[in-house]
Amino acid sequence: MARRDLFTSGLEMERSEQISRREAMRESAERISLNKRIHEHGEHFKRMNEDSLMHAPEFVIKPRSHTVWEKQCVRLHCTVSGWPDPRVVWYKNNVAIDPIGNAGKYKLESRYSVHSLEINRCDFDDTAQYRVSAMNSKGELSAYASVVVKRFKGEIDESLPSPRRASTEDGPVSEYGINFQTHIVDKFGVSFGREGEIMSLGCTVIIYPALHHYQPEIQWYRDDVLLSPSKWNHMHWSGDRATLTLTHLNKEDEGLYTLRVTTKSGYETYSAYVFVKDADAEVERAPGAPLDVRCLDANKDYIIVTWKQPAVDGGDSILGYFVDRCEVGTNHWIQCNDTPVKFARFPVTGLVEGRSYLFRVRAINKSGMSRPSRISEPVAAMDPSDRARMRGTSAPWTGQIIVTEEEPAEGVVPGRPLELQVTEATKNYVVLSWSPPGEKGLEGVMYYVEKCVSGTDSWQRVNTEIPVKSPRFALFDLAEGKSYSFRVRCCNSAGVGEPSDPTEAITVGDKLDIPSAPSKVVPTRNTDTSVVVSWVASSEAKELVGYYIEGSIVGSNVWEPCNNKPVKATRFICHGLITGEKYVFRVRAVNAAGLSQFSPESEAVEVKAAIGGGIPHASPAPPYGITVLECVCDSMVLAWKQPSFIGGADITGYFVDYREVIDGVPGKWHEANIKAISERAYRVSDLKENKKYQFQVRAANMAGVGIPSLPSNTFLCEEWTIAVPGPPHDLQVREVRSNSLVLLWKPPVYQGRDPVNGFYVDIKEEDAPEEVWRGVNNKATEKTYIKIKNLKEGERFVFRVRAQNKAGVGECSDVTEPVLALTKPGTKEIEVDVNDDGIISLNFEYGDLTPDSKFVWSKNYEEITDQSRLTIETKGNKSKAIFNTPGEEDIGIYSCLVTHTDGASSSYTLSEEELKRLLEVSHDHKFPIIPLKSELAVELLEKGKVRFWLQADKISANGKVDYIFNEKALSQGEKYKMNFDKNTGVIEMIMESLTPADEGTFTFQLQDGKATNQSSLVLIGDVFKELQKESEFQKKEWVRKQGPHFIEYLGYEVTPECCVILKCKVGNMKKETSAHWYKDGREIKSDEHLGFTEGVLKLEIAQRGSPAGTADYADDLIWRRLKISKKDAGVYEVVLKDDRGKDTSTLNLTDQGFKDLMNEVFSFIANSSTPLKITSTDQGIRLYTFVSYYNDLLQVTWHYKDSAIAFSDRIKSGVVGEQLWLQITEPTEKDMGKYAIEFNDGKGGLRRTVELSGQAFDDAFAEFQRLKAAAVAERSRARVAGGLPDVVTIQEGKALNLTCNISGDPVPEVTWLKNDKEITSDDHCILKFSSGKFASFTITGVNMSDSGKYSILVKNKYGTESGDFTLEITEGTPDLGVTSYSTDAEGNVVFGPNTPKERMKTTVTGIKKQKRKGDSVTKTLQMEKVEDKDKGKATVEPKASDSEQTEKAKEEVAEQPLTADQSEAPEQPADRVEEPGPVAETQPETWSESN
């Protein structure tokens, strides 16, 4: 029992241990599996391009607005997501909040993507709009919240405006009565651009009242889609101007752009269309680029790319499209399809999973390829589920792992795929999609796709090599017109599963048809440059993309696209048309299958503005600013201001309404006038005295009556009895310029007790307080206009006028609207003109006329209606006021105003003095003289002929000329040749030569009807002599040019390669003409550097020298191409000669001439220099620069701290090849500073600088210390300096002595080895090391046991080196005497000084080399050992009995030449040198033997 219990206990313990081991193994396996998954997870993200993971910031929770009491705290918070982590900044009224600068006021916190702003103890100044901006590399996003701080009753600051009661008529009112009025001015119009250009759209935004810290919300839209800042769109808000910049126009940028300005009181918008034309095609008649390239259905196996067809096909139908892809991070574009596809959708396969790609599309027709489209946004080749997981809250960089699926089950074959269907089918491809099998936790499921032709049972696997990873697949290479069925199988490592249910039979072909053509195209007039085109939509159009509209001038048959981006509406405004031309239009629809046929052409329409300029509501806007000018007991005189918008047509009149106000309650409106009134002032009659009234005014034009104005203030109808005048009215501003303007007004209706006798004008800046009104005129003016000067450019001003009578100055008029003192672009002034008939006229031109614009001429700012003094003529955009009979009564100020513009006007003051000047000019025109373009002049012609000539500006065919010399008429003859070209007005007289009798005055007298003129030229004294001398010279020159001659004389040119070329241009050459070059009187016979091309003779000069092998060149100068030097200085001459004559040209290149030449060479060298750089050597720091070519004559100066450097042993400069350097030996901190090298080229020179200080000096000095230490170590390293022979062959019984040089500091330790074992010195082998330099190896009598490999090993603290040789023992031969050999620096074998003379005749072949170079030299030594009794050591002597043998050996060796090339001794082995004969003791780097 005890045994059984013991056994049971042991079994349980063993089971327990087994369980523990299994649990430990399972835990270990799970850890390994987990680590593997983590590694694979990380590798997956490494493979993915970060562009596919990054995304712009998004506000999960936006900040909320708050209303709090004063002295309370408020906290704004938001939650932001984005990758990389966005940077969050808080703003108050668009000013960044600085918590440090406002310590205790603000507190910012950011934790776990939650960001907060806490405002401590709020006061009224904290009432503002707060913005939080989140920004990362993918974009920026903002969110807004308002904080309103309220005060308790009784604590309101007196400086604040008092709260007002909200009024539905006045608009929304805030807490303290702030009602923002937004005006958008200086608007951008309809804009036209071309692909690749930059376009900027901008508007000036005026917000009233202007609060310093308040900023509106500015938003830009394109086709009602909010735009965000990107590389294509840049947005800017300057405080009063909003700007949108399109950095690189593409057709995708075409559309309706809208600016939206939002304030607390509402918002204002402005819109205009932007058209983008195709860039010029790279190939003529090639189509335009496709547009709007997008990526759909991106997964691991393919990405579907879509695009829109271009409007321009180049005149030939588009054959198809090519899709290109580019992996993000590279610039390598790869074409995805071999043949063009017509369908505007294409699945791109062959992508690498996890990588991001860009796509573009090109169109092609028979003429060529279009430009590529704008590239798409980057997209990753991965499944949407993976992409969503990448953008989840658990970012991959946190290291957090969330297991969302079950552990995969191993060894289980997956089931059938589900819901297989054909999602897209064209004639080029078919796209399948399905759902994974229903089982969960399957391991690595992938898919095989199979196809089957309808009517057969043969299933063929499509992807035989690689299974599909995603539940989608695109099939290509299907036969068009055939029907197929498809099915899918799942597979994994356990095997291939059962197939899915097959699809229905699908016939390969485009399932999407091209849309039908639109119909009923109707054009309607809009503006003078645009037409509204409408049409009936296509009856059969699936997946419609939009419509393209084209227009053509009637009769031209040239169609131009009106839009380059499809529009989906059936109405479009075609802009950019020519005013007055007739156009027809046509439309076609487009979808992914292609473009439809064109619709029938529309009826022709003339481009002309419709009523209202194309604006739907053509009636005028309401007038404003209603005031009372006079009041009596039963009537009031009202005045108002013209509407800001008149509806596109002239205002035909105004209608006034009035109503009685009783106890603050207004009554019913009554019409004051039934017939429209044209003036902006009207007397309303039949009122009741002491009653209160309100008024409203409506404006009317040919389109109708506009809406009424806002009700005026309430006025009391009581008779005015004040003595001073009432206010002037109808103030108008004309002729606005940068520093001046003209102000007009009408006198007050109420005169007061006495008539008005003058006016005062006041001015102030727009934003200035009321206290700063200042007078323009100190003395009252009687006129109702005044020109105000000395304005500040760019400033806005307002004006008012006061009238005075004897009683005093009356009430001020209404203030004008703010006027910007700025001259508008294109502004022109009135110009005065006097024509050929003496008629004086004033002319004014304006370019931007509207169809309703008119020129209105005024005198003293009163419209001219009587044309008895002036006749007005207007043609197009020009108007002319012609004076009928100019006189003193015409003196005054003449002005011209262009209606229906932005105030285009100008004036001209005709003063008494100006009138007098114009009358004189008019008289000259009535009684004209013939104008001359040039007075009488003289010039020399070929052969020294003298030409007298002048040119009349205007002369008729009836003009006559008399030629006079010293008051005598000249006539055509042998000496004088006259010519009169009446077409050009050129009159000339030519003389063959000048003689002393021709000195005097020449005159040409002209007559053309009643117009006359004359011009004279005096040729006497030195002037005549110089002209006569030059004439003779030109005659000789003509003779010279009859033979070979120089067109351009000899000069030089310096090429960028610093070659100096002498050249001259010659003419009238023939085959027999010879050209000879001379230098200092000696002919240059070599033609190596002579050239004659295109009439130019060239000689490249360089340093003179003789080539190798030439002893003397005194007779013939031979030239070779070297750097130019002083030897090239001299006088060069070229002589042209043939049977017609000769010509000579000389160039002096000595002294100053040579200096100028070299300075030009130096200039090229200096400009080729590289920036000055710093390097280090083992001696110090070196500054250097490289030049492309260096010349020894080049002068350079090195500077230190702007002072020339005085060179010494420590600081040196020099040149190595093309490198110029400055060496600073053993540099110190005193050498820090600015260094420069200055090239002297005789002009300004060129200087290169470098700063040797700070980090640059520290780095260079550290490198110098390192190199210096390395050099010291290298110099002091132990080494075998002399080397040893590789192989020594010696006879047995001889004595061998080898000596080599040893170097090193400290003195090295020397060790000898035999067969890699250390040996010591004894009587047989004597080892010596003397003077710390020489190591000797001596064997007193060699025997066969001494054969082997010997090595010397030298060692000190800086290093170790060894030398090896092999000793070979042979049998003895007769003694040939004592011979000593040694090796020179290259290892060549030479004879020693003790060698007998007869032995020195022996030629030894072979080279002794260092062991480490891998070569070997074998010495065969035939020696006899003889004891030297006196010295006690072995020497080498020739044996007497062997004399015959010695002589024979000498003869054999003497036949061979002394050489170091073993190849010339073929009888010897390549690696051995055998020498018969004895060798004596050697010097260092020698070997020897003795008999």
- Rg calculated over all Cα atoms: 53 Å
Which geometry do the CA atoms define? Answer: extended
Percent helix: under 10%
Q: Count of DSSP E strands?
A: 107
| Average pLDDT taken over every residue | 81
Specify the structural class.
mainly beta
Low-confidence segments = 153-176, 392-406, 612-617, 1103-1121, 1374-1383, 1385-1491
Tell me the major beta sheet: 7 strands, antiparallel
The N- to C-terminal Cα distance equals 103 Å
Count of runs of 4 or more consecutive helical residues: 9
Summarize the helices and strands and which ones pair or pack.
Elements: H1 2-47, H2 50-53, E1 55-61, E2 66-69, E3 74-83, E4 87-92, E5 95-96, E6 106-111, E7 114-119, E8 128-136, E9 139-150, E10 181-185, E11 191-194, E12 199-208, E13 217-222, E14 225-226, E15 233-237, E16 241-246, E17 255-263, E18 266-277, E19 291-296, E20 302-308, E21 320-327, E22 333-335, E23 345-349, E24 356-365, E25 368-369, E26 379-380, H3 384-390, E27 418-425, E28 430-435, E29 446-453, E30 459-461, E31 472-475, E32 483-492, E33 495-499, E34 506-507, E35 519-527, E36 530-536, E37 544-553, E38 560-561, E39 571-574, E40 582-591, E41 594-595, E42 605-606, E43 624-631, E44 636-641, E45 651-662, E46 665-666, E47 670-671, E48 681-684, E49 692-701, E50 704-705, E51 715-716, E52 729-734, E53 741-746, E54 758-765, E55 774-775, E56 785-788, E57 796-805, E58 808-812, E59 819-820, E60 831-834, E61 840-845, E62 855-859, E63 862-863, E64 870-875, E65 878-883, E66 892-898, E67 905-910, H4 912-926, E68 932-940, E69 946-952, E70 960-965, E71 968-969, E72 976-981, E73 986-991, E74 1000-1008, E75 1011-1019, H5 1021-1040, ...
Parallel strand pairs: 2-9, 11-18, 93-100, 93-103, 103-106
Antiparallel strand pairs: 1-3, 3-7, 4-5, 4-8, 6-7, 8-9, 10-12, 12-16, 13-14, 13-17, 15-16, 17-18, 19-20, 20-23, 21-22, 21-24, 24-25, 24-26, 27-28, 28-31, 29-30, 29-32, 32-33, 32-34, 35-36, 36-39, 37-38, 37-40, 40-41, 40-42, 43-44, 44-48, 45-46, 45-47, 45-49, 49-50, 49-51, 52-53, 53-56, 54-55, ...
